[in-house]
């Protein structure tokens, strides 16, 4: 197939299009197994440490310092916060025992993050043993954005989170809302039953069960923070890209894919929702010709209301034009 070795960012990229067209669906599958792609694969670990680890965590800290409201936690989520922290620490230690460890002597636990050079002894449930709330502390050590959902009154509620890399939504606005309310602005999914079905599915998850799904959009440049709050900083780039030279599109326009994990926590009964954002410029997508052709075809066929909601009305044209030379090249 490919003569030159593909870079790691391509080999591990979660290319999200198994079908020739794209529609919203309750696309969940069990987590923890490697998903195979034309370039390699992804998905062995729910928490994925890659070459961007340090840079992305510096970026998370920058965003958090500029806007502390990217961390939210309602008071009844304390138990879930602690459980999230210890769960994610265990996942990191299991996936990369050389760099992360979690040990326990009696009631005292010890955490070591060799990647960042952090060490911390703590007693779960005792806030005085941590420098900051547990969800904020662990969120600053994983590349994933985090939302915690409480389950009560036959519904799910987004009652805590640390989200610095949102694709055009706002945690501060959404915190305390129900799962159905959070998805209020998404077209089609309510009439088609996608969201009510997803909620039923999630409410039925048993302790320890893990599922995953993907979502995608297009982003100009490798900009992780495209939250509603910073729209004035990034909104116009879509128009400027569309008005600029086509030659820039391959380098600047990125396929942005979220790998989302859904995990039932056993003690708090909360659902841990992890959102990991991967970005690949079109010129890297084109290193895998079948990806370039598939993305081209998906963008051409995508209905306008979905394109509008994804915020790609201006950029999909330039994307299609740049990818056109790959259309029909691969069968
Ligand atoms: C957006 C489906 C789980 C929060 C969306 C979209 C879909 C969707 C189709 C539109 C995406 C786009 O056009 O790019 C689902 C399904 C889920 C699920 C099927 C589970 C099986 C969750 C969970 C949360 C969540 C657990 C956490 C609270 C959001 C948010 C948005 C969104 C904040 C953006 C809404 C906005 O524009 O304000 N979801 N989702 N989703 N989802 Fe989910």
From TrEMBL:
Classification via InterPro entries: HODM_asu-like (IPR021848)
Source superkingdom: Bacteria
UniProt-recorded name of the protein: DUF3445 domain-containing protein
Organism (species): Rhodococcus gannanensis
